[in-house]
Design goal:
Structural class of chain A: mainly beta
Oligomer: heterodimer
Strand content of chain A: 35-45%
Radius of gyration of chain B: 14 Å
Structural class of chain B: alpha+beta
Order of helices and strands of chain A: EEEEEEHEEEE
Largest sheet of chain A: 8 strands, antiparallel
Number of domains of chain B: 1
Radius of gyration of chain A: 18 Å
Number of helices of chain A: 1
Helix content of chain A: under 10%
Number of strands of chain A: 10
Shape of chain A: globular
Number of helices of chain B: 1
Shape of chain B: globular
Largest interface: A-B, 21 and 17 residues
Largest sheet of chain B: 3 strands, antiparallel
């Protein structure tokens, strides 16, 4: 398969499709390593708990039902976010990643750092359980 | 038997739905419904379900 270029990433936050306002997305999947080293052995680890995070960069939009209206009520709560490499149907070559029970601690409603710029902002979701589906 | 709640979709951004569609609690599993209502994506559906109507004895 060819090297993949991200051109049409699908981003659904709290059941709301905001893909057409996003410009970046980084999903980190981690299962923490817990030390299980014993006397007489070498360094060893076992799987701990999931420690996932997701960063999404948006262009701001204050219109009804758009980015700001959707994100603002989610601060301080948990929700579900679904990411796909492309907007087409889920398949083995376009898997979906569902991060459920993930927490949004903060949001930047105004990011007007320079006059006349679009000034994208980044949301960070932390924690939650990640599941991958290919059908 | 308790009926499952449903909501009226108000925007065209709710996954797999169009404005005017109904969406059930089951379809919203894992979502923050209060936030969706506050954001203007959903409204409580006030239409009565058929099985809520009183039974008429014959």
């Amino acid at each position: 398969m060819a090297i993949f270029a991200y051109k049409d990433v699908s981003i659904t936050i709290n059941s709301v499709d905001l893909s057409d306002k996003a410009a970046g997305c980084v999903l980190n999947y981690e299962i923490e390593a817990q030390d299980a080293t014993v006397f007489g052995g070498n360094r060893a680890s076992i799987a701990g708990i999931q420690n996932n995070s997701l960063e999404i960069t948006f262009y701001q939009d204050f219109a009804a039902n758009e980015v700001e209206a959707t994100i603002f009520p989610l601060v301080g709560t948990t929700t579900t976010v679904v990411i796909k490499p492309a907007s087409s149907q889920v398949s083995s070559t376009n898997p979906s990643y569902t991060l459920s029970g993930t927490y949004l601690a903060s949001h930047t409603p105004i990011n007007a750092t320079e006059v006349g710029t679009t000034a994208p902002f980044t949301l960070t979701f932390s924690g939650g359980t990640l599941a991958k589906a290919t059908s | 038997m308790s009926g499952m709640a449903s909501y009226k979709v108000l925007s065209n951004r709710v996954s797999g739905k169009k404005a005017g569609d109904l969406i059930s609690d089951e379809e919203l599993a894992g979502a923050n419904v209060d936030a969706l209502i506050e954001a203007g994506h959903l409204a409580a559906n006030n239409s009565k379900k058929k099985n809520d109507e009183p039974k008429v004895e014959v």
